[in-house]
Amino acid sequence: MTATTIDEQRPRRWDTVVRLTHWAIVAAVVTNAIFTEGGSRTHIWVGYALAAIFGLRLLWGLMGPPEARFSAFPPSPRRAFAHIREILAGEKHQYSSHNPLGALMVYAIWSCLAVMIATGIAMAGFPGGLRADAGHQQAREIGIERTGATVGDRKERDEKREEGPLSEVHEITANLLYVLIALHLAGVLFETRRNGRQIVVAMLPGRR
């Protein structure tokens, strides 16, 4: 991750895959946060789409252009603290990829996405498939019916399962993700004002 002075590098845009996956992830997170109900069919399918998009971005981190690869912005607390010292000293640099603080934020957001997606799939199962405990659940329901339990009893058991540890981790991770996104936006605004660099423009459609 190399730094240059502001005047040494022309404004550039991220490549098409980075831009598309970035805004698609934003759209999926916003949709499930605001427009769908947790656990609904729509919420689950948006989650599957998010998993596919996120997987593409991670794959692109291995085979994409140099500035999009993981090697271009490795997470480094040491470099992040050095970057903070640069900010305090009034030094202005432009990086070929994310700056060190931005890199830490990217990996923090990706970690939250990974946990959120994993717990969501663990609860809902894979598309077109059954949860790992589906067979056991069906057996339990048959046993309930044989003992004369009501539909209400089955519903109560399902609700307890949905409110288990996985659901709690899923919700906590989602809330943490919203906080990180807010910090990310604040960082973008700060860097734009400090460097005069149009960071948002780099993510918009158009030529690089």
Automatic annotation (TrEMBL):
UniProt entry keywords in alphabetical sequence: Cell membrane, Membrane, Transmembrane, Transmembrane helix
Domain Cytochrome b561 bacterial/Ni-hydrogenase stretches: 13-206
Membrane spanning stretches: 20-36, 42-60, 101-126, 172-190
Superkingdom of this protein's organism: Bacteria
Residue numbers spanned by region Disordered: 143-166
Single GO MF descriptor: electron transfer activity
GO BP term (any one): respiratory electron transport chain
GO cellular component: plasma membrane
Pfam families for this protein: Ni_hydr_CYTB
Main location per the UniProt record: membrane
Gene3D superfamilies membership: Transmembrane di-heme cytochromes, Chain C (1.20.950.20)
DNA repair as UniProt keyword: no
Biased composition (Basic and acidic residues): 152-166
Membrane topology: Multi-pass membrane protein
Subcellular location: Cell membrane
Listed name of the protein: Cytochrome b/b6 domain-containing protein
